[in-house]
Description:
By secondary structure, this protein is an alpha/beta fold. The chain folds into 2 domains: about 1-240, no CATH class; about 245-385. The chain is about 45% helix and about 15% strand. It contains 14 helices and 15 strands. The strands form 4 sheets. A 6-stranded parallel β-sheet has the order 2-1-3-4-5-6, sandwiched between helices. A 5-stranded parallel β-sheet has the order 8-7-9-11-13. α7 links the parallel β5 and β6 (about 225-230). α6 runs parallel beside α7 (about 205-220) and α9 (about 270-280) runs parallel beside α11 (about 360-380). The relative contact order is 0.10.
Amino acid sequence: MKKIALIPIDNRPICYTLVEDILAQDKNIELFMPKRKFLGNLTEQANIEAIYDFLKNLEEVDILVISLDTVAYGGLVSSRRCPETYEEIKERLLKFKNIIREKAKKILAFSSIMRISNNNINEEEKEYWSQWGKRIFEFSYYQHKSRKEKSYNCVYNQIPQDILNDYLDTRKRNFDINKLYLDWVGDKTLDTLVFSKDDTGQYGLNVEEAEFLEKEIKSRNLNAFIKTGADEIPLTLLARALNEDISVRTTYVYENSTDKISRYEDISVKDCVEGQLRLAGCKISQNAELSFLINNFEFEQGDYVLGDKINKLAKQINFPDKKYFIADISNANGADCGLIEEILNKKDENLIGFCGYNTSANSIGCAILSAIVRYIAQKNNSFNENAFKKLMFIRLMDDWAYQASIRKYVRENAPNFKEALKEKNKDLKIFEKIIANYLDFKYNNVSYSLPWDRSFEAEINVENL
């Protein structure tokens, strides 16, 4: 039995129950996580003391994967909002460091480089973002661009000084904390460390921080990485910890478009895919055990949220003739309905994993871990087929039924999100029957909720027969 512990980013289903569902495919994995009620959400930070108690009482495990944002600030959202000073957070982190030293054979951790959203939405930011968010983004963008190109920056005086100072102080605090973690890799407290870039672009203070950290990592020869993404990083790190030198062959629906850059990211599709595979410890090879099919976009990635462009597959796919898994990144924030039609019609037993939610990096990391866990479980005769069917059912219901088909209606009925979701219950039941029939999945009941009271994430609970 392999014992794995995870400190998630927050209590969203994609950060908590998704991990449970993926790892349940292997009967030889025992997962330990803090109680969900102790983790942060959109408006409240995590109960950090309760999480520290969880770690203190944790028996030694084989693998420990940690969201450092959770133990430092109380969660990813809280990392942008919490008012504590660098010294206060550092003192708490040193206690945490002493706790984890003897808790796992292998410790992998990740921390975010604070994002800069290009909008005036303060849902996950400080209050002033509703008025000054786009200006702060522009300030950040042109500050970095002007330093890089040695050109004049004309944005500086357009933000009230007190707001700008508060923002820069928060950035500096988080950046200094991230620099502290480099020492933890240096003294072998952490076996692997990832800094994640969430919602990024070509220029910005976050990009500048990433460049500094990258130089430090290389100069000190540390086992640390900079990766575009956020929510998928713990999944990719779990894959890395479990991996047994698995080789993967990549194939793209649009082979000539792998240099395109996805929305919300700053690297090409190919670099994103190969970077995630390498972080997961996979070997990329033409003669591989597994095939990874990426449903990329030919010209521009669609987006179900922005609604300015939505892609639908209109060509026949040559599915691999060996075990394969799919990352559906044709659109951000939902599956490609044309691809799903192809999958449902083919009903292929070689398909061992699928994901198509939110950003490209999110979908890629999710798909990689899903496939690796199943592949290893089958090799070790510990595969739980019903858990696999449940995982696939939830992914297709979330990425296709909800995100691509139902969410638009829910969003348009703000702020009555929950009532709008209830109104679509009959439609969801139709999707349930289609997907369950495709998977030959027997279930008793499915329930839907919006745990953060917004349209972004739906929680799908399935009761097995």
